[in-house]
């Protein structure tokens, strides 16, 4: 069967893997010079820079299906987070995983004792719910869900808002409570981790699993019409089946205007002589006057992120930026206020403005019938925008699209 896959992101690589398993030899057309899509790691000035702060949640069912965690040499974050205010900081931790943190968690200023008991209660409730049950539950905004659950404004503003704003890439917690429950469950049942040599290793691992797939890099697609693929260089390709894993409105005229703009984020990297965090924790900045949403020393998680021995600091900004030209200087000033270390010691390495960081999905799902992947007899769709914005959803959609292609060839539906 003559199958072309548009896009070598996670969805495309998974689709190719499943097609290979069924005896096919797909061809991937990728517009850029690499595989991985939104997952990428650059080597720059002796540092490994992930394009946008990302983590792998080890409890993702699809990640467990397709990835070998030992082969990726995963390095783990300490469960919890550090809340940073100028001149003051405190930790929110999980005493069930680390009993030695029980007293400090009880005394933590992050919220009331009732809030902390509610976190434990929510963890237990979600551990008893399947992922399908979570995504079939009523959908509120995350903020409304947290308030309805009884959390105080203090813990919402100190922890939930900055933590989940960094995940959802929106600052009001308007994202569906389904997604909140799913992510909270994944954090509770596994760990946040990165491969020791950067998130791009996930894409490289998936690519290396392919043995009968041709990957054509630097091959942008102009349009798709029926079984015909037109490349930007004018080449026309006839395909029996096509799996589109990029945003389909970019290549299929009939879908133009059907998709909301993606969410964006700024990711800035700085080097410092040494970390001021001590342990591999995500630090949250709840003060709304600050641009910084979260920061983390990637070298606290994996020493391989730096070849010089210097610390590598990742800073994420989810708020609107009025003047990009002054962003680096503003962030340095904020880092000085938060750490007490003079701004001049933070050496700027690189800034990423990631416009297509996360899809906006209104009706979030955990799964979809393979028939939903089919656009017409020739074209099938995959991508996390079909379910929810996550690596897990990207893998699910790639698998489902491949299943739909295989079944359509055997028994047209």
TrEMBL record:
Signal peptide: none annotated. It comes from the Bacteria. InterPro entries: Amino_oxidase, FAD/NAD-bd_sf. Residues 10-406 form the Amine oxidase domain. SUPFAM superfamilies: FAD/NAD(P)-binding domain (SSF51905). It holds the Pfam family Amino_oxidase. This is Protoporphyrinogen/coproporphyrinogen oxidase. It comes from Belliella kenyensis.
